[in-house]
């Protein structure tokens, strides 16, 4: 009985490791790095059509974009995740994670939600514009 149980556990572990490796490689094949001009630090200037002020955030939110990932701050909490580029002008912020410190940031939740729903971008005059299915959501200046 012990041998059967040990054999079952061994086979289960081998199969689960193989499945995890296959899943990871599939994800990597579909990743496209974002354009070089996006890969820098961006500081939030405008949120849902309104210029942000120090009343909205104690320190202005920022995002640091790399080839396939992002990091940054909501003004209080650190954020990070993965980027998915779907071609020219298309981008998604995936696997979004954030610290959970209590903050007095009035617009923190709105900023995080808009990042999660972002589907497009454009760059003009050293400014990054993010949009979702409803239109322009945020603008950033180079940091």
From TrEMBL:
Ranges of residues in domain DUF306: 37-140
Matching Pfam families: META
Superkingdom assignment: Bacteria
Name assigned to this protein: Heat shock protein HslJ
Annotated keywords: Signal, Stress response
Secretion signal span: 1-20
The UniProt record lists the keyword NAD: no
Keyword Glycoprotein included in the entry's annotation: no
PROSITE patterns: PROKAR_LIPOPROTEIN (PS51257)
Protein species of origin: Flavobacterium nitrogenifigens
């Amino acid at each position: 009985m012990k041998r059967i149980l040990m054999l079952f556990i061994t086979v289960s572990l081998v199969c689960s490791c193989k499945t995890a490796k296959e899943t990871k490689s599939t994800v990597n094949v579909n990743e496209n790095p974002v354009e070089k001009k996006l890969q820098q630090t961006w500081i939030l200037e405008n949120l849902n059509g309104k210029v942000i002020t120090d009343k909205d955030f104690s320190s202005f939110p920022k995002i640091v974009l790399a080839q396939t990932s992002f990091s940054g701050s909501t003004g209080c909490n650190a954020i990070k995740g993965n980027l998915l580029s779907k071609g020219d002008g298309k981008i998604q912020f995936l696997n979004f994670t954030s610290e959970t410190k209590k903050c007095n940031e009035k617009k923190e939740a709105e900023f995080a939600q808009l990042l999660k729903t972002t589907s497009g971008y454009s760059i003009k005059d050293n400014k990054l514009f993010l949009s979702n299915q409803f239109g322009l959501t945020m603008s950033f200046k180079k940091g």
